[in-house]
Amino acid sequence: MVRTVKKYTEEFKSEAVQLALKSENVNQAAISLGIPIGTLYAWVEKAKASGVQVVADANGVVNNVNVKNLIDENRELKKRLSRLEEEKAILKKAAAYFAKEL
């Protein structure tokens, strides 16, 4: 007996995981999508292990979010903000100094 292996796109996998996490019923999500329950469970576990969570934005649109990436991006943005605030303070002092000389 030959076993056929279905290939699913990453987009399909992502949407299936979104549906499973949103509905909180992996079995029903798998049945409605026509995929094996074990396959969907594996995708959900892989997504959870990589830090992916389902988050709804202000418009109610559900998105997969990698929390680790967001934390890293937030840290970098805070560093950049701090550096820009320091530059602003230096430029403000320099402008005041040169304004006195005029």
Salient structural properties:
single chain; Arc Repressor Mutant, subunit A; two-stranded antiparallel sheet; mainly alpha; 102 residues; 2 strands; 4 helices
What can you see in these coordinates?
- With 102 residues, the chain is mostly helical.
- It has a domain at 1-49: Arc Repressor Mutant, subunit A.
- 69% of the residues lie in helices and 10% in strands.
- It contains four helices and two strands.
- The protein has helices at residues 10-23, 26-33, 37-49, 67-101, and strands spanning 52-56, 62-66.
- A two-stranded antiparallel sheet has the order 1-2.
- Strand 1 and strand 2 form a beta hairpin.
- Helix 1 (10-23) packs across helix 2 and helix 2 crosses helix 3.
- The longest helix has 35 residues, at 67-101.
- The radius of gyration is 24 Å and the shape is rod-shaped.
- The N and C termini lie far apart (91 Å).
- The mean pLDDT is 83.
Going by helix content, strand content and strand pairing, the class is mainly alpha
Low-pLDDT windows of residues: none
The SSE string, one letter per element, is: HHHEEH
Instruction: Tell me the number of strands.
Output: 2
Biggest beta sheet summary: 2 strands, antiparallel
- Main sheet: which strands, in order across? 1-2
